[in-house]
Amino acid sequence: MIHVAQVLLALLPGETPPLPRDELSADFGLAAPKGLFPSDHTPTTPDPARLALGRALFFDPVLSGDRTVSCASCHQPAQGFADPARFSLGVRGQRTLIHTPSLFNRGLGEFFSWTGQSVTLHEQVLLPLHNRIEMDLGLEEIAPRLRGDPRFGPAFEAAFGRPATIQDTGAALELFVSRIWIGASAVDRFQAGEFEALDEHERAGLWLYESKAGCWRCHAGRNYTDEDFHATGVGAQDGVAEHGRFAITDEAQDRGRFKTPTLRGLSLTAPYMHDGSLATIEDVVAYYRRGGNATPERDPDLRPLELDDEEAANLAAFLRALSR
């Protein structure tokens, strides 16, 4: 039986997702930050009209079914292009089922989303648009809506020389997202020879990161991620792992495995993990100090870290230095 109270509750409007304004600098995404790329590598210069179009689409709710949600609603610039909430608000006040990851340096990615659902950034930027919880706009509706929009219709003609298409919508969004970079951190300056860029605690944390803490095994390279998937026990209930990448591959060895995120910008992107279950960097360090949650699938490299409290604090200090 359906009670009157349930009917009334269903009719009440849900929470309204945020709509962050575009307050990024005029030259956002044009120049690559130091430390992110090898010194002999220069990223290509983006087409300015297409970059501007992708940026405008990112902040505008035109791509959501009910015009209440934008890409920036979940990937909030002030929060490291992530979401400070554990689960994000989508259309009709619905909550996502997984924590929104940061978009920092996604242009360097090899797989996308926590489970590697997409293998290209172009594919990934379109997924939220037709996800029923997130933006809920059918793929077949995107191009007609944009062609009929007095702002975006002419913008597509200017950027691509033709009316809006789903392919060009993805290309514009992909271009903007690929230029959401973060680098030039205190750690980069230290590694470039500026010794005083890190204080003594941060330097001690770097030594731990590269030695007995073993963080480098998964958070490797200039972007501090191996772009691979690991089972750390996050989200496990009573020793039973979540599906993780298994939901994509149907391979038993992928059960409980989720993608390694970059550590750059970490101070800006709390809460942490694919389920947003860890609120602070200290919580993350504590989680790994005890070796994560035990499941049969847990990565064999994941063992309790033999760190005392001072060492744990130093490691957290180093991780924060990747954001400043």
Structure, explained:
The chain has 324 residues and is mainly alpha-helical. It has 2 domains: 13-178, Cytochrome c-like domain (Cytochrome Bc1 Complex, Chain D, domain 2, Orthogonal Bundle); 186-321, Orthogonal Bundle (Cytochrome Bc1 Complex, Chain D, domain 2), CATH 1.10.760.10. 33% of the residues lie in helices and 2% in strands. The chain has 12 helices and 2 strands; from the N terminus they run αααααααααβαβαα. It has helices at residues 4-11, 48-59, 71-74, 121-130, 139-147, 152-160, 166-178, 186-191, 200-210, 246-249, 281-289, 309-321, and strands spanning 229-231, 257-259. The protein has a two-stranded antiparallel ribbon with strand order 1-2. It is globular, with a radius of gyration of 21 Å. The N and C termini lie far apart (56 Å). Residues 1-12 have low confidence and may be disordered.
Characteristic key phrases:
2% strand; 324 residues; mainly alpha; two-stranded antiparallel ribbon; Cytochrome Bc1 Complex, Chain D, domain 2; 12 helices; disordered N terminus
